[in-house]
Amino acid sequence: MPSSDGAELRADVRRLGDLLGETIARQEGQSLLDLVEQVRQAVREDSPAGANLLAKVNVDDSIRLVRAFNAYFHLANVAEQVHRARTLAQERGSGESWLQRASHRIADQKISRDELARAVASLSVRPVFTAHPTEAARRSILSKLATIAVLLDAKNAPENNRRLAEAIELLWQTDELRLERPEPIDEAMNALYYLDDLSRSTVSQVLEDFAFELNKFGITLDATARPLSFGSWIGGDRDGNPHVTAEVTKNLALTDNVAFPWFAAAGYTRGIVSSIKARKKLTQEDRDVLYKGRINPIATFSDVGTVIWGNKTLQIKESALDRINVRRLLLQARKLISAVSVRLLFEQNDDKVRQDFLNAVNPILDGIRRDRGLYDFRVTVSSDTADLDRNQMTGKIYIKPTKSLEFIDITFYITPTGASFENI
């Protein structure tokens, strides 16, 4: 990294550290901040002196001291990640990203289009997630660190500094420790947090850049191609962890399958219930009667056991919203869109902020569409003068939710032996 970038990184780490110091002094008192500084200097300059100082600290102050250093290291990591992202963005803008460099090398080697096309057809990059339960951070901590990263990457304006200070104060007030021992399921949920974050923009941007570079060689990336996918060892690596049992692995696999809430939590793939057997085995007629009454029945099959066999809500009026997966789709979409929309509040209510809204919302919905949650969508934003006078912006989001398949209607037709199927 160039020295100027190093100086900028150090300045940001110092900025976050100063704001954390102000938070500690405000929340815990100047004495704790003084102790943090004494320990920092003693450990850097004289390890034995630092050890002697720490030996005199009581239990309560020790806990707060550990929290202070832990928060600082969190913030330093955030600053480093933000600067790494900036460096990658600058390289991409100047034509020096790793994909662009690879494209230049391929051109220099004069590799034929056919040879490159064959290589692309078999290309499969698969990063694999693994973790340890002690590394499964709480979502509340992860979300606050993400907010700090966004604010740090924004313009260094006075109001932005205030928001950063507020975010750091919230981070300090959030307990990092779980009330219960982390389980493999916590590892899985932690991985899903990162996968969700990657799917919003990073993965689509990488694939778009990849397709763009291929177009330079006259190669079009097939719409069904999967050059990039993700794997996971979480909950499945039998490395001596007594908590990773066959049942845990099964449950985690099921969690992965229902990671997208717009898939119905029913049927063979996502509706399997962990039970020995149902108290009463329902007939097809029983299930049909219950389903018409908006009660999701269970079914029992010899190969998989008990399965949830319905996807209805209690809504009486027939519409897309009388299905659970569509309801969950709307909840997820609203959550994601609200998270990006709130960042636009108190900006200038002009054409730029409306375009910023569209630029933030469209990729979210496009990602849901790619992951089979929507057939199609459209987003509009009003620039009505009445809205401007009320200090508001009115957006309309039109969506066509993907419906779940609940009925298969098959009809057999017996035809004469000599009949032709050409005109069917």
**Rg, Cα atoms, Å:** 28 Å
Overall 3D form: globular
Q: How much of the sequence is in beta strands?
A: 5-15%
Total number of β-strand segments?
6
Helix content: 55-70%
Structural class: mainly alpha
Strand order of the largest sheet: 1-2
Distance between the termini: 66 Å
Mean pLDDT: 83
Number of helices: 15
**H/E topology pattern:** HHHHHHEHHHEHHHEEHHEHE
Report low-confidence residues grouped into runs of 5 or more.
none
Let me know the largest β-sheet: 2 strands, parallel
Please explain how this structure is put together.
56% of the residues lie in helices and 6% in strands. With 424 residues, the chain is mostly helical. A hairpin with a 3-residue loop joins strand 3 and strand 4. Helix 1 (3-28) packs across helix 2 (30-45), helix 7 runs antiparallel to helix 8 (158-173) and helix 13 (324-341) runs antiparallel to helix 14 (351-370). The longest helix is centred in the first third of the chain and has 35 residues, at 59-93. The mean pLDDT is 83.
Write the layout of secondary structure elements.
Elements: H1 3-28, H2 30-45, H3 47-55, H4 59-93, H5 98-108, H6 113-121, E1 128-129, H7 139-153, H8 158-173, H9 184-215, E2 231-232, H10 246-257, H11 267-270, H12 284-292, E3 298-301, E4 305-308, H13 324-341, H14 351-370, E5 374-381, H15 385-389, E6 395-401
Parallel strand pairs: 1-2
Antiparallel strand pairs: 3-4, 5-6
Helix pairs in contact: 1-2, 1-4, 1-8, 2-3, 4-7, 7-8, 9-10, 13-14
